Amino acid sequence: MKNNIFIIRGLGVFVVLLLAGCWAAPDTRYYTLRGIENPEVIRKTDYPYDIGIGPVIMPEMLIHPGLVSLSKDQGVEVSMYRLWAGRLSLMFQRVMTDNVSRILDIDAVWPFPWDNRSRPKRQVRVIVEEFFGVIGGDVHLKAKWIISTNNGEIQLLTRGETFTQLASSDSYMDYVEALNAVLNMLSVEIAQSLLEAG
After folding, report:
1. How far is CA 31 from the centre of its chain?
2. Among 82, 119, 147, 183, which one is most buried in terms of CB atoms within 10 A?
């Protein structure tokens, strides 16, 4: 009787190991965001202020490494094997800082946090409400931004907008490309808002 139990247990372990060997997890892929390749410089005169970009506030559903997308019935899908190569809010902020610097053609654009002893004269706080879409469909970036001065005590301009880009295929690579496109659109609008705010 004991021998039969050991045989049954041994067969069970063998079957589990065999199934585990047959099933292979998909390769994990990591993605990043990048700035505009050749931005058009929109500054017409010297911009007299240094600029701070951030903080960037992301929705709670985006604070983890997996890429988030929507299903066609508005369900939320989080990929286990398609991941951001860093913290999304910091990556987003880094790219926006680089974009604004190149669009305005000035070097003095800094990502948050900055040194309290020398805070930028113009600060841009960004609240992201949506930064996702349907794989193979429309991708949206809905954001509000506040341009302030005097260490954030005086608001110069508040604006909000939604940007949309159609992903060119149902691959994750093209989904990330569409996310990147709407981030770059937002960067252009923020640069224009900084000129408008003075």
Report:
1. 10
2. 183
Total number of domains constituting the chain: 1
* Burial per residue of 160-186, b for 16 or more beta-carbon CB atoms within 10 angstroms, e otherwise: eeebebebeeeebebbbbbbbbbbbbb
- The pTM of this model reads 0.84
Range of the structural domain that residue 189 is part of: 2-197
Structure confidence by residue, pLDDT tens digits, 80-129: 999 999 999 999 999 999 999 999 999 999 999 988 778 899 999 999 99
Our CA angle for 15, 17, 20, nearest 5°, is 110
Contacts from 165-174 at CB under 8 Å and sequence distance 24+? Answer: 165/138, 165/139, 166/137, 166/138, 166/139, 167/133, 167/134, 167/135, 167/136, 167/137, 167/138, 167/139, 169/136, 170/135, 170/136, 171/135, 172/29, 172/31, 172/67, 172/79, 172/82, 172/135, 173/31, 174/136
Q: Strands 76-84 and 66-70, how do they pair?
A: antiparallel
Main-chain phi, psi angles of 168, to 5 degrees: -80, -10
Residue 25's pLDDT band (cuts 50, 70, 90): low
Q: Maximum distance among all alpha carbons in the chain?
A: 91
Q: What is the CATH number of the domain that holds 191?
A: 3.40.50.10610
